[in-house]
Amino acid sequence: MNSLEHLQEKVNYDKIFDCVQCGYCLPACPTYETMERETHSPRGRINLVKMVAEGKASVEDLRDPIEKCLGCMACTTVCPTNVQYGQILEGAKEVIEEHDVKSMAQKKVEAFLFESFFPSSNWMGTLGNATWLYQKSGIQKFVQTTYLTALAPMRLGRFERVLPDLPSPFERAFRKRRVLPDYKLRTTVAFFTGCVMDGIFFKTNQHTVELLRLAGAEVLLPKEQTCCGALHSHSGKGLSAKELAMTNIEAFDLEDVDYIVNNAGGCGAKMTEYPHLFEQGTEWHERAKEFAAKVRDISEVLVELDGLTFTTPVPRTVTYQPSCHMTNVQRVSEPPRMLLNNIPGLKVKELNRPDFCCGSAGIYNLVNYDESMEILDLKMIDVIERKPNAIITTNPGCLLQMKLGVERHGLEGEMEAMHLVDLLMEAEPAAK
């Protein structure tokens, strides 16, 4: 296979011709709206990929447009010809990764982050415990008051200010791996804890398990599960994503469950796409299809079980910021809204453009901070017009991004960002 054939195979060249360059994707694309360049629109990116695959442009010409794509998949919801943009995008990222010239230091850092840090529950627990100590010891307050956070690389200091209060190491250490409902057993599920969710939003994960238990589910937490692989795919590390998928499929195959439940839109989306990682007709492709068929967002399962009643009114006005990957890839839209409408005393104001990305997109807001903030500011204009007390999200990246939006616009004390699961717990759910 020559280099051009290799490029064409990597970028799914045959799928490129499904794009008829009609432009329906343009109004749906956040980066086209903020950057106002054809090359930073879905059809423009697809055309660039085609030119590279045909040897008419260099891989370097592809780098900035592809790296600046959020991967929100909003374009796929309006595409009249069902272009598989996600597969083309991930293929292009793998090609860029292959052609990237990196220093030894960069390679070592990436190897640690993607091969050791994110896939490891031990490292995630260590991150959470270290952050808990940082918060409780007074170091955080000292660092913030002396503005040392401004020295952090990649604007990490901005995100440090909006981290939630983390649980103690004791709480993490004594988490149960199996819980049973008090009353009628309606289903048995396995819970996918995620890496960022478990490291930073551990309490939300605990609330997720409790909601499932109250709704009538036996909940299992497979110990051998690992990172979903979304961050790896977004960074062009397709082989690593495939290996993580295999680990998760094997871990969850050990449990006889009806559903594999997650509370992170990005993680759920990646897991539903596991079959794309394997060649059709292979054993792993079939196993991935069986796995993906069981993947459900927590909101879907709670609505289906219909086992909860909310006992305490929540006198708030909220708006709902949907996860792009949950909406555009998992195709889950109504269940979160149905749950919100079931909370007594809650007033829900729909955003004018709910499907417009918040700019988080995995680690996009870290590696493309300025571009991400332009998108976030547009989202916050929409939010502020609704005048909510809280912004409700269903994904850790969206949650941190919206917390940053509240802080960035000086709205602390007026509104907060919350995960849907935590709001449901505030309404004191009980089994029906």
UniProtKB/TrEMBL annotation:
<keyword id="KW-0249">Electron transport</keyword>
<keyword id="KW-0408">Iron</keyword>
<feature type="domain" description="4Fe-4S ferredoxin-type">
    <location>
        <begin position="59"/>
        <end position="83"/>
    </location>
</feature>
<dbReference type="Pfam" id="PF13183">
    <property type="entry name" value="Fer4_8"/>
</dbReference>
<dbReference type="InterPro" id="IPR017900">
    <property type="entry name" value="4Fe4S_Fe_S_CS"/>
</dbReference>
<dbReference type="Pfam" id="PF02754">
    <property type="entry name" value="CCG"/>
</dbReference>
<dbReference type="InterPro" id="IPR017896">
    <property type="entry name" value="4Fe4S_Fe-S-bd"/>
</dbReference>
<comment type="function">
    <text>Component of a complex that catalyzes the oxidation of glycolate to glyoxylate.</text>
</comment>
<keyword id="KW-0813">Transport</keyword>
<dbReference type="GO" id="GO:0019154">
    <property type="term" value="F:glycolate dehydrogenase activity"/>
</dbReference>
<dbReference type="InterPro" id="IPR004017">
    <property type="entry name" value="Cys_rich_dom"/>
</dbReference>
<keyword id="KW-0004">4Fe-4S</keyword>
<dbReference type="InterPro" id="IPR009051">
    <property type="entry name" value="Helical_ferredxn"/>
</dbReference>
<keyword id="KW-0411">Iron-sulfur</keyword>
<protein>
    <recommendedName>
        <fullName>Glycolate oxidase iron-sulfur subunit</fullName>
        <ecNumber>1.1.99.14</ecNumber>
    </recommendedName>
</protein>
<dbReference type="InterPro" id="IPR012257">
    <property type="entry name" value="Glc_ox_4Fe-4S"/>
</dbReference>
<keyword id="KW-0479">Metal-binding</keyword>
<keyword id="KW-0677">Repeat</keyword>
<dbReference type="GO" id="GO:0046872">
    <property type="term" value="F:metal ion binding"/>
</dbReference>
<feature type="domain" description="4Fe-4S ferredoxin-type">
    <location>
        <begin position="7"/>
        <end position="40"/>
    </location>
</feature>
<dbReference type="GO" id="GO:0051539">
    <property type="term" value="F:4 iron, 4 sulfur cluster binding"/>
</dbReference>
